[in-house]
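Renewal narrative, Specific Aim 1. Our central claim is that a sequence can be written position by position from structural information alone. The example that follows is taken directly from our test logs and has not been curated for this report. It begins with the structure tokens describing the chain, in the order in which they were read.
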């Protein structure tokens, strides 16, 4: 009997996710991600409230497709 391997984490293409959901698919640390956001090289977060920050899944998928060539849309990080 062979044990089934756990499914790889996946990210929906639509909607929004918090860092805790992204950390399983993003190949960098939270601090490095923050630095990339500030530099405009990763998707900017959306602040829904003082304690709730989320990222657009479509933008995260765009970043995952080309991490080196990714640039934020005008408006940048908040």
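The sequence written for that structure reads:
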């Amino acid at each position: 009997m062979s044990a089934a391997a756990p499914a790889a984490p996946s990210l929906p293409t639509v909607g929004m996710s918090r860092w805790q959901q992204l950390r399983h698919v993003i190949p960098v640390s939270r601090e490095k991600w923050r630095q990339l956001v500030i530099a405009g090289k990763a998707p900017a977060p959306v602040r829904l409230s003082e304690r709730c920050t989320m990222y657009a899944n479509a933008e995260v998928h765009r970043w995952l497709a080309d991490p080196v060539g990714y640039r934020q849309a005008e408006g940048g990080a908040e």
